[in-house]
């Protein structure tokens, strides 16, 4: 089992896992792009915003047309297939991982996609605000040494605008199962360091353990246990980044592990790195 993280060679900033692409900026070389193949199970959040023109995206086998003032987004674990046609007009693509998201001051419910919609339309004024925010992010990511806090501030503004449009313009009720998955994620977030048992979560959501497994597997691609472990390791890395002097023992206890040795082994199993190696990377 391995946690899905943002590919290191894609990041455009030393302190964050984030990349932006526009018609004239940020494209990978054909050799680099070729290593990802024509289809990829996304390890990060992906956005495509079209100001003028049109584009196509194929996600989980579904072809989605994106036109003027529309934004497409895809979530980790979804399968994105490269379309046969390119983009026309003015557009921005953006990718970032959960660690970026965890450093923002608020949560964004639209990223759980409770309405099961992956395309959002914007009114002209909102589209222009969105475009300008993308433009500032591109300017900040022109250099890898840009202040991560500035990047996060504009990313927070961008996601706030998108979140508002998602819930204002889409009134469709959530399909069966998504409300339970949303409840699962919120319960995990609220009780993460207590490491709740799967049976406890299922009981809180009025589900059987098998029912919970099916719903979480359907919407995240992993089992409930794997989801919680991945989330704990992401939280561990987040805390290590912000508090690099925390000992392994302290960190383990903060995250609800009674055995620091088990926590260390789990961290290496999930990330492929020891905790010491991760701390060493942070100091470089």
From TrEMBL:
Residue ranges annotated as coiled coil are none
Name the residues that span the membrane.
none
Instruction: Indicate what this protein is called per its UniProt record.
Output: AraC family transcriptional regulator
Q: What are the protein's UniProt keywords? A: DNA-binding, Transcription, Transcription regulation
Write down the InterPro entries for this protein, in alphabetical order. Homeodomain-like_sf (IPR009057), HTH_AraC (IPR018060)
SUPFAM superfamilies referenced in this protein's UniProt entry, alphabetically: Homeodomain-like
State if Transmembrane helix is listed as a keyword.
no
Origin species: Pedobacter riviphilus
Q: What are the residue boundaries of the HTH araC/xylS-type domain, all occurrences included? A: 182-281
Pfam families given in the database record? HTH_18
